[in-house]
Amino acid sequence: MRKKLLLIFPLFAAACSGKLPEQEVLKIFSRHSYEEYSPQKISGLLKEKGAAGLAELDRHALVLKARRPVKARPSERNFSSGLLFGERRGGIFILKVFSDSPGAAAGFRDGDRVLALDGEAASPEAVRRLVEGGAFFRLKAERRGAAGPFEAGVPRNDFFFPPSFAFYDRDSRTAFLRLGLFFEGSSKAVLAGLDALYRVGAVNVIFDLRDNPGGVPAEAAEVLRAFAPKAGPVFEVRSRHKGYSALYGAAEKGRFAGMRQAAIVNSGTSKAAEVFARSLKELSGATLVGETMAGSVSLVRAFSLGDGRGLELSVARMFPPSGLDMEGKGAEPDIKAGAPGRVWDDSRETTLLGDQAYAAAAGLFDAGVRR
User: DSSP alpha helices (H): ranges in 146-250?
Assistant: First the structure.
């Protein structure tokens, strides 16, 4: 049984009231803010409206008070078998079996076709009812190349899907990459996983960036380099302060430049993930599927005001190769699909079952399916 802890990182809680130290505010804006404002304008807004006035300059500006301690608590939301189900060409399949999960221990593998659950013929309704409603079910499946069907019991416990994972559809030769966050070291793992699928025949790739809050820009840029059609810029972090600026480029054509791409996005796709999706579209013609993205591509940092409080504000902004500014106006998808709301909040086995956005993205590559 694997536990997952949700970390609450050191943060400041929003301050309710209190006059701000004007000189400290002016110094922070002068040294760090993405845009330049006259001291007179900042002082005037502080005198007239206090902390609320700063938000008129920078929509991310926020006054913060005492730090919260770092804590960890177990999530109570997840209850999963570690199997991810989906529909493919008229059948119900196991798209992904996660390592060390109850489903893996029961002997199931990626790509197994589901025939029955607790003796009932496989259907989307049967999967939802039996998988989401109980702590145990029996699953009957068949496997490509196997002598015949097999059946096993599958318990459900507090197993959790990892933030990033991949699976492969052999028929359409499509790799699916779920990217939940661009954390330190994630690009290396993502590219290694994609390389393995590329070597077994993947020619298409679907990135699922829904609910990805961004993360480390350099990690997003590293993945983009692998898809660059030629040498040139792939991702930019722009600021009037040199220390916050960075231009990421590809030195040559990327290894995966020839793959057809789609990216699934929603209103929870923001910051580095939002720019990543738009950059893929600009660099190699990736199709964006889903909802309008968040329109939040600023890098935000917190600075001490010297009185126990802090000031959070934008220090830089991220841009795709075209220089398109998406702050405050999220990029639109090429194909509108999917319902509003968070998708990957928990480890539901049925997340992709009946998912319109996933179906639309997968459908882009079904024309090449081998019959």
Answer: 186-199, 217-225
